[in-house]
Amino acid sequence: MKLTVWTYEGPPHVGAMRVATAMKGLHYVLHAPQGDTYADLLFTMIERRNHRPPVSYTTFEGRDLGEDTAGLFKRACQDAYDRFKPQALIVGASCTAELIQDDPGGLAETMNLPVPVIALELPSYQRKENFGTDETFYQLVKALAGPVEKTPHITANLIGPLALGFRHRDDIEEVKALLEEMGIGINVVAPFDATPHDLTRLGAAHINILMYPEHAETAARHMERTLGIPFTKTVPIGVGATHDFVAEVARICGVEPKKDLSRLRQPWWSKSVDSTYLTGKRVFLFGDATHVQTAARIARDEMGFEVIGLGCYNREFARPIRQLAKEFGLEALITDDYLEVEKAIEDAAPEMILGTQMERHIGKRLGIPCAVISAPVHVQDFPARYSPQMGWEGANVIFDTWIHPLVMGLEEHLLAMFREDFEFHDEAGASHHGGHAPRAVEGGQPPVSEADSPRSISESKTDMPAPVETGTDVMVWLADAERELKKIPFFVRGKAKRNTEKFAAERGVTEISVDTLYEAKAHYAR
Amino acid sequence: MNRPANIPASTCRDAPILKERGQREVFCGLTGIIWLHRKMQDAFFLVVGSRTCAHLLQSAAGVMIFAEPRFGTAILEETDLAGLADANDELDREVARLLSRRPDIKQLFLVGSCPSEVIKLDLARAAERLTQIHAPHVRVLNYSGSGIETTFTQGEDACLASMVPVLPGTEDRELLLVGALPDVVEDQAVDLLTKMGIGPIHVLPAPRSADAPGIGPNTVFACLQPFLGDTAAALERRGARMIQAPFPFGEEGTTLWLKAIADEFGVDDATFDAVTAAPRARARTAIANASEHLRGKSIFFLPDSQLEIPLARFLTRECGMVAVEIGQPFIHKGLVGPDLDLIPAGPTISEGQDVEKQLDRVRAARPDLTVCGLGLANPLEAEGLTTKWAIELVFTPVHFYDQAGDLAGLFSRPLRRRALLKLEERA
Prior knowledge:
The complex is a heterodimer. In chain A, 43% of the residues lie in helices and 12% in strands. By secondary structure, chain A is of the alpha/beta class. Chain B has 17 helices and 14 strands. In chain B, the strands form 3 sheets. Chain B has a 6-stranded parallel β-sheet with strand order 1-12-11-10-13-14, sandwiched between helices. In chain B, strands 3-2-4-5 form a 4-stranded parallel β-sheet, with helices on both faces. Chain B has a 4-stranded parallel β-sheet with strand order 7-6-8-9, sandwiched between helices. The chains are: A alpha/beta, B alpha/beta.
């Protein structure tokens, strides 16, 4: 038993729904009690889908439990087939139905429906949503995709994009464009908009583009094994990764790595002088493994940020994320405990968070800007405009998205220059964010004072973790030094204070004077 | 003058009820935690359930306002399912950990879920055991919010009913208002009744457990919401008596509801009129303005919040709408009877749901406005039907005079918007 307040992932049957909802001509019969239909609103509201997810719920109640829930399931199955006439059915149980052990797969098999029926075993008490997506897609591929004649020209399958994915809709277009440049055609895109019939043609492709390992790696490995289709290991998010991706595809397919860079603006935007202010911004990365992995490289190599913390919530990918963290000289945070992530971010006190919608909430509370890089998603992650993460346009989009929450370069200088001016006071924040000023980070204190932290109404102050500071209990800021510290613009004041205290502590200095402050500044000057 | 002017000759009270079973597109009772935890400020709601329960609460809440909200889910894992003794130990440990971290918590609700009920985890016994361990600082209660037992707003009923047996006894003649309403609305109700000289007035649930109302043979109570049947029954078992009335939606509903209480407390007509005249006039004006786009329009209620019958009464009698079908998850005539009395026979009254069949009826009727849950709203809009999502009716202050215009506005906004948008290509 584990106490959970907020979750990064839903149960595995929601993962199965994400596959089913992305597809056409497939129907999911889910043995589930009343209430599990809540999951429909994720698709119709967050993603603004204009149709209901293709899911029939058996909706059993307490009074059914002593009776014939198996009969109820078979009726729901027959009704769903009669009404929707799908090309294939998937059947399974939600967490409660798993306990009553009706065996939906076995029941459906006895019905001799004239279409393929694929049974899903998704252990709700062990696994989570991403397991559900990966396993469901794998089972569909295993059941439907067999050996077929290859297409005469070189073609690729794009696998992994599905419903409620972070920018999957637009990533598909970018990857298609990258492949077209190299003269590679598209065989099947799946699960997104694919029919069960389309899945039977997967074997005709020469290469699988594994867009999202979280959702399709098992299927990719299966197709490599049984159909001899190699798959890509590079996820083309970021300039460098996209170059690598093109090279990888060209190598596998034996074609020229042709690229059209005419639309790629990110490198110049990053080199131009306004971007100087991005140098060394301390960022914390958290999300699903694939997006964190790609974001880490972009942050360091393409934005000039300093990555001060990273991690992922999906344990299945803990190993590559630990490896990545090691390369960055960090300890990876592998957890799905939201409070643990919040604590890690609070302790690290980054200047920006690159995370999920969950970290956006943490950022709001702590007054730290945040850009979203990964699922779990929110209605604002489904913009009307074209907004991919992959490919050349994805690199441009990411540049804009990441700098948007920050105070802009020229503006940062103006703020420093006019900081005594009433319009440019410390709390004013970025002019393009209305009234939502980032909260000033005062010294090494936890950025949110206890008094106005939402937590303070519900958590005892004695239990608050002590502010993690090096030796502040023995360290005193002399009045002059404190006044001098106040003159430093708020957005670097926290760093200045921390650095000075660290510098002082290392030298056994207990009283910080103006001199200590500037000696520390000289020491840390880059 | 305070009686309804036009009691129809043939009403929906005796209309045949179309009872359906099949796929239900409704939330389970756990959802009530979203508003209950805001109302009871020293209570924590601990769902004993699965990842699905936690995901539902997060999805229904929509926003994550607090880092550590006063609700959470003790997620059952494989090991808990292996042996029940272990699950009880695990629960005790999680509760102890929670309460030591949250000393502000005075009431803890163990909320049963579908999985906890299927594995027959006895939360009533767990609550007794935990109350003994954590008394006198914390009282531990339990109720079921599971989908196999409750639908959406029934969760509030189950929660309030669980509190009734432990309310202190009293012999005093007191008025108890039952239901968790936003403070602004609750204050208005108490204020109107106080001005008539009625008191003392208490509310269940109280914002803090120390203020829990007393209950006894001289208590009379009025429900603020039409889904509190089990709570009403529990109060009656404690000797209290229910005042029956239509629910306080709209000018008419509010007046009839207040009047029933005023009569019980012997308030004379002059006093009643003096207190209600001004807000009644305001409500009428506001409704008239907001219902301009509603008059003559047809409306179809899919079952969702249990507010459907009282709202249909308001919309048909005060806003001039025509009801095609009024669906409720379940119909408790002891509560909604007075509202049914006021709705002229005509609309289909349905109980339960077989969503595919009901959507076929919606498509055949093509109502001007369909009231439904969030899972259905966009798909129906895409079919060219205008919808009002029902959950807003539960989260928004809509009771009593000064919200009557807002209530009509919730229904007229989708119609106004549809009329306003010019998005099609013009030839």
